[in-house]
Every structure is written in structure tokens, then in C-alpha cells.
Amino acid sequence: MEIKILEFVKGASEAKGVTVIIDVFRAFSVECYAFDSGAARIIATETPEKAFELKKKYSNSVLVGERNERIIEGFDYGNSPTEIIKTDLQGKTVIHTTTAGTQGLIKAKNADLVLAAAFVNAGAVADYIKIINPEYVSLVAMGYRGTQSAAEDLLCADLIKTNLEKESEFEVSKISDLKNSSGKRFFDPLNLDFSPPTDFFLCTMVDRFNFALRGAVRTDGNVDIMQVEF
Q: Splitting the chain (230 residues) into consecutive groups of 10 residues, what average pLDDT does each group show?
């Protein structure tokens, strides 16, 4: 099994084989918590405009997402797991768009299969890949706003890679150390309304969920996200 770590939208476009799109802070952490909160389905889309179009087609749906980390005007919820865990999503369709994570799902057009990952489901993603046992795996760290390297996404890629190769031990302490680097923004009082400290802790709970997230491209270009449970 050949494993390659890529970054950003460009990396998603170049990815091949089984492709894992990684967005820890916060897109795919949010999607895991949304399923845990009862969501019946998640549809990832590229733009707010496409999200509004989808909402017209699905009556029992909510809009979840952000631009520049803040909730999009007209959306029901921001891209915050703290919001999602307080919300009853039972039976609802979640329509999700973010600056980085969902863009990666849309752009991974050369992949044989697309998975979405964060720390909260990293182990399940690795286990699913082991079952498939592909020749090639692309781990795409989407980064901060899809343009800057993000320590948390690269760490998550390393965690998945370590689980797949079992050649080294992953240092879990590096995850808690993120509060002093890329996770500092969650502890800035100016960000409390849209990036509270609880988001940091909810996003860094390694293997909180025992399911992978698998994407399937729809005829309209959006991506259906499905749970793969173990």
C-alpha cells in the first residue's frame, strides 16, 4: 500500500486511489457529530448558493456551514460542533458547505473512493482502508481555509498513516499541544461567538466515533456523505 500526503484543494484535485479528505477544525468533526445527533443524511456542496438550492428540494433540511469561520447569512447553524451537539437533527438532511473541507470532497474527481476524516473518526477511517486494502492511498490535509498548512490536519494524516503502516508510534501528546499553535484561535475571546473553546476539545477527541464517512458524487455535482459503521 503506497501512501501519499497532499495538501489543499490542489492536493484534492491530484489525489488518486482511496482518497481521504481531512479537515479537523472543523468540517468533518461537525459531520461526525451531526450523524451522532441523528442526521439522516449529509450533502456536501461547494457554495452557499448551491446550498440554498438544495434546501428548496429537501423540506426537512438544515443549512450548516461557514465562510471565514463565521456562519453564513441565512444558514441555520455555523460550522461548530458545539452548536451541533445541542441540536436535535433526528431525521433531518444536513446541507453542508465550508471554506476548506467540503471543497476538497468536490474537487477529488480523480479518486477511486473518497472518505472524510478528522481526529474523531481517524481510527475508523484507517480500519475501513485496511478492509479495502487499496494499492494507493491519498491523504489530503485541507489546511486553514484551504490555503495554509494546518498542523491539526497534517497530524491527522500522520495518525491515519501510522495506523495503516504500524511502523511507528503516534505521539498523542502532539494533539493536545495544538491549543498552543493552530488551535489558539478557539481560546481568543473575540472568537467566542463562532469558534468557542469547546470546539477545540470536541474536535480533538481521538476516535470518539467508530464510523467512517464515505462520499458519493451525485449527478448534480454535490456529494452525499454516508456512514460506514464497524
A: 97 98 98 98 98 97 97 98 97 98 98 98 97 98 93 97 85 92 96 97 98 98 94
Would you list the DSSP string of the chain? Answer: -EEEEEEHHHHHHH--EEEEEE-TTTHHHHHHHHHHTT-SEEEE-SSHHHHHHHHHH-SSEEEEEEETTEEPTT-SB-S-HHHHHTS--TTPEEEEE-SSHHHHHHH-TTEEEEEEE-GGGHHHHHHHHHHH--SEEEEEE--BTTTB--HHHHHHHHHHHHHHH-SS---THHHHGGGGTTTGGGG-GGGTTTS-HHHHHHHT-TT---EEEEEEE-TTS-EEEEEEE-
What is residue 107's predicted lDDT score, i.e. its pLDDT? Answer: 97
- In the numeric block, which cell numbers belong to residue 136? 494507493
Task: Decide if 168 contacts 130 (C-beta within 8 A).
Answer: no
Q: Find out if CATH 3.40.190.10 is the number for domain 2-229.
A: no
pLDDT digits (tens, 9 = 90+) for 132-185: 999 999 999 999 988 899 999 999 999 999 999 986 678 888 999 999 999 999
Nearest CA-CA partner of 99 in 149, 65, 62, 139: 65
